[in-house]
Amino acid sequence: MPALLSIAGLRLRSQAAPRLFNAALRRRYRYQGVDTALLSATAVFYALHPDDALHHLLQHLGVGDDLFMLGLAGRWINNDLEDFLHWERDQAALPAQPRS
Asked: Residue 62 and residue 35: Cα distance in Å, rounded?
């Protein structure tokens, strides 16, 4: 598996994200990360929101907490994509099932 910070790793994960959502919507993949998806969306909203409490109180720390939240969201998303990529690899290794 390519490293996350490599171009190949980013490409692999960016291509896997739509496949994850497609497989989850078609109920082929049981997505366990609904809570992390909501937390990630909340973290990104928090980081991008202009009325950040810490930013107003301590200007130099305001950027730090935003970067921390974006880092958490990135880690959660990466973990979900890793789980999906492992699932895809396992599915490819299984013999084809006849459709009924």
From this structure: 26
Query: Domain extents for the chain?
Result: 32-93
Measure the CA–CA gap between 73 and 70, rounded to whole angstroms: 5
Higher pLDDT, residue 32 or 77: 77
- Averaged pLDDT for residues 10-32: 87
The residue ranges of DSSP E strands in 3-100, in sequence order, are none
pTM of the model: 0.70
- Tokens read off for 92: 């490819």
Q: Note whether 1 and 85 are within 8 A (CB).
A: yes
Mean confidence (pLDDT) of the chain: 79
